[in-house]
Amino acid sequence: MSAVLPVTPTVEAAAGHRLVLRRFTRNRLAVAGLAVVVLFLLFCFAGPLLHSTDQTHTHLTQVNLAPSGAHLLGTDAVGHDELGRLMYGGKVSLLVGLASGLLATVIGTLWGAVAGYAGGWIDAVMMRVVDAGIAIPALFILLVVSAITTPDTWGLVVILGLVSWLVPSRLVRAETLTLKGRDYVLTLRAIGGTHGRAIGRHILPNSVSTVVVAATFQVADAILLVAYVSYLGLGVQPPSTDWGGMLSAGLTAAYSGRWWLIVPPGLAIILVVCAFNAIGDGLRDAFDVRGRG
Fold this sequence. Notes:
There is one protein chain. The chain is an all-alpha fold. About 75% of the residues lie in helices and about 0% in strands. It has helices at about 10-25, 30-50, 80-120, 120-135, 140-150, 155-165, 165-180, 185-190, 195-205, 210-230, 245-255, 265-290. Helix 11 packs across helix 12. The longest helix is centred in the middle third of the chain and has 37 residues, at about 80-120. It is elongated, with a radius of gyration of 23 Å. The two termini are about 30 Å apart.
């Protein structure tokens, strides 16, 4: 009589991918959010190829021009084309948001998986570290570090990643506590499989729904944190900029009626953050539906 091998959730997950995709595409708000993100990625990264502008040197003869055929969104206080500036700043905001969100998710996933799988005093110590970190506002840490180091783009990515991994770690730990008692994990341990293999082969792959949803929210939070810090003048330094820096630079000009210096970057931040949140909500609902099926 041949042995009956246990069916791992990896196989179940592969079979459920189509259902998850179908549920996600039925969520119109999530699909709209995905479309907005794709459009902004094209706008910021491919747009400069079609609308090339000089965002390094000043043009004092063209300062604070209103929107026109030559400058569709006008110019700022040093003569930079505002449309090109929006692309340039968006590239920094999206790059920092995506990279730091990914870094935070990776760190949090590994930390939470190890803590949840190890259990006992190891789990207690690791999660007390997380609790202590959550008690300190991430924005406060970011402001202090930014004031000391004056980070560049990649410096912001590292700083944001190191202050934003705490929430994903708690989510993955909770998922790991459920998964480590499943038959396929116990079977692997019974036949001599290592802890690393159990985490890498079963725990992490079957936590993918939690990880993906957490990553989308982390990106949205990172974009907002970058905007906060740059608005206070502690983000990337000139001639580089991001949407938060554009808001800070255009705030005083807005009182003089130069709305084009503040409305476009403000709308960009709102649209992108709401889009990532909508994607996260759609993914969460899609994976939850599969889990209840």
